[in-house]
Design goal:
By secondary structure, the chain is α/β, with parallel strands linked by helices. The chain is built from seven helices and nine strands. It folds into two domains: 141 residues, 2-Layer Sandwich (Pantoate--beta-alanine Ligase, Chain: A,domain 2), CATH 3.30.1300.30; 176 residues, Ribonucleotide Reductase Protein R1, domain 1 (Orthogonal Bundle). Helices cover 35% and strands 17% of the residues.
């Protein structure tokens, strides 16, 4: 009798354990399914946002193709601020998107410092960058560090940095020893902290020497869209007052008029039309596009570099970088 009761008790415990295990397994399967479903939804939303951003790029290209390429300034249609707009499929609103084009040639191209691979720094471009760094009241060691980041050798300049500096960091890494592909690389360069990066960001760009119709590998500056600091850095004889006067005269934002000819610039010396290093122009071939797409709870950002130097009816996307927030 006792043996039969003991067997019944064991069977009951076994049954309870089996039910508990089945419950745990079912819960685990349901949880995995929910995770898989959320992951699939997130991937789908990101892909939708990605296609919306690429669509915005197509619109930007269309606007640039309609632009008069003889001159460019901030008062033209391509430069106007577009407010955030609803996006979706048919009548279903899925989120919002906003985008902005800017003149990439209104900034000093960091790659102008070494326009030809294997060659040394371009002296005139270096002098211009030194003046810009000084105008912004930054550490002059930034100049050597940026050049060392681009050049192919491993010998540091007096105030620069090469492998020995970067590999000693935690975590360690190596300098690119190649052209900048994005201005954000500056955050990895020695002598450039968060404050220095924020100060440089509105005044510099990263364009490959083979793009945007660069002459001899050097990308010109469009003074119709350059900051007063970049204009002042173009020549040692340009002081802060003169640069500010030219900046104010051409206008800024949607009210800008710009200049359609270099001869229209009041007090602009004729010899400045062929400045050594980074020359000055009133037109641009490269434009940067920043797009921000919000679909559901997901946010995607995209940066594109658009080059129209390849032909009157063609624009090439040279860089397209996606970011997820």
């Amino acid at each position: 009798m006792k043996s039969r009761k003991r067997q019944t008790g064991v069977a009951l415990i076994t049954a309870i354990l089996l039910v508990a295990m089945a419950t745990l397994l079912t819960t685990k399967l349901a949880w995995d399914y929910q995770i898989s479903l959320r992951r699939t939804e997130a991937i789908l939303v990101q892909e939708q946002a990605r296609f919306f951003a690429i669509g915005a790029e197509a619109v930007a290209i269309s606007v640039l193709l309609q632009d008069d390429a003889a001159f460019d300034h901030a008062g033209e249609n391509w430069a106007q601020v577009v407010p955030p707009m609803d996006i979706g499929i048919d009548e279903i609103t899925m989120g919002q998107m906003q985008g902005r084009l800017h003149d990439a040639q209104g900034r000093f191209n960091l790659n102008n410092l070494i326009p030809v691979r294997g060659a040394g720094p371009d002296k005139s471009s270096r002098a211009q960058f030194e003046r810009l760094v000084e105008i912004l009241q930054l550490d002059r060691g930034i100049v050597d560090a940026v050049i060392d980041w681009i050049d192919e050798d491993t010998i540091p300049l007096p105030n620069g940095a090469e492998d020995s500096v970067y590999t000693a960091l935690d975590p360690p890494y190596r300098p690119a020893n190649n052209y900048f592909t994005s201005v954000t690389e500056l955050r990895a360069v020695a002598n450039i902290d968060e404050e220095s990066y924020a100060a440089l960001l509105p005044h510099v760009t990263a364009i490959h020497p083979d793009w945007c119709g660069a002459a001899g590998g050097i990308t010109p500056i469009n003074i119709n869209s350059a900051s007063a600091a970049v204009i002042e850095a173009l020549h040692e004889d340009i002081d802060q007052g003169q640069a500010k006067a030219w900046f104010d005269d051409r206008g800024e934002g949607e009210n800008a008029t710009g200049w359609e000819d270099m001869n229209q610039i009041p007090g602009w010396p004729a010899e400045y039309n062929n400045l050594p290093g980074t020359p000055a122009m009133i037109k641009s071939n490269c434009f940067g596009l920043n797009v921000l797409v919000n679909v559901g709870s997901s946010v995607l950002s995209m940066y594109s570099l658009l080059d129209r130097s390849v032909g009157a009816d063609k624009i090439v996307t040279r860089v397209r970088i996606f970011g997820l927030d």
